[in-house]
Amino acid sequence: MRWCTVDELASKLTFPEGYTLDLLSESDVPYVTRALEQWFPELVVGSESRHLSEDFYYRNVQLAGDAEERDTIGLVLRFEGTIVGLMMLTKDAAGQSITSRIGALAPDHRKGAVGFLGVLLLEAAARTMGAAVAYSIVTMKTKHQQVIAERYGFQIVGIMPAWDISMVEPGRPKRVFEAIYAKVYAPESEWHFPAPEAMTKRTRELWDFLFPQRS
Which residues is 134 bridged to in the sheet? Predict the structure, then answer.
């Protein structure tokens, strides 16, 4: 499962006037790290704080023009040439899955259709690359991203307690809960459903709640 091109992604979406999509490049990295710090001050702690380090991108992310394919890419959204958004995608080629861990928009660009581009990009990448399933890890600090995920057919499949650290208020880092959303593209003929006897009572209760049609 290889990364699709930005042109392939862009061809499947309609961007509001003035917006364009690019693959993160080496020259973009310093600007992106500074911008993220301004857009999301809470990123200064926790696992996602790595996105504030230029070295993280140079070591771990496939940048525009790289000859070697890596498992993580960054997509940058520009408005009239200026970067106003970033979305990081990670693929698991062996498992045929793609995951969105972080998406960020400049505050002035979070309204209207632009706010929906993240989930649409994830879905377009999954379909174009032939992924069997796409995952999105969503904040529980507000409902907004949950609403968007559900609107486009992603299903909540779990809540990760104390998953990460976030600066919930200035000077107050706390461990936060985050929701996992999934959308399966593989046909049901490829699914293996667990036997009831393979689940504990509590697991079966959760199964029945998440997949009542398979109870």
Answer: 98, 183
C-alpha 191/C-alpha 187 separation (Å) is 7
* pTM greater than the 0.70 cutoff: yes
What digits encode the pLDDT tens for the residues 144-178? Answer: 889 999 999 999 999 999 888 988 888 889 999 99
Query: For the CA atoms of 18, 34, 119, 143, what is the dihedral angle to 10 degrees?
Result: -110
- Residues 6 or more apart whose CB falls under 8 angstroms from that of 61 comprise 24, 70, 72, 73, 74, 88
Q: Which two tokens stand for residue 119?
A: 């989930």
- Which parts of the chain register pLDDT below 70? none
Distance CA 38, CA 33 (A): 9
What confidence tens digit (pLDDT) does each residue in 93-102 have?
999 999 998 8
Biggest alpha carbon distance in the chain?
Answer: 58
Alpha-carbon gap, residue 28 to 171, rounded angstroms: 29
Domains along the chain with CATH numbers: 6-184 (3.40.630.30)
Q: Are 24 and 61 in contact (CB under 8 A)?
A: yes
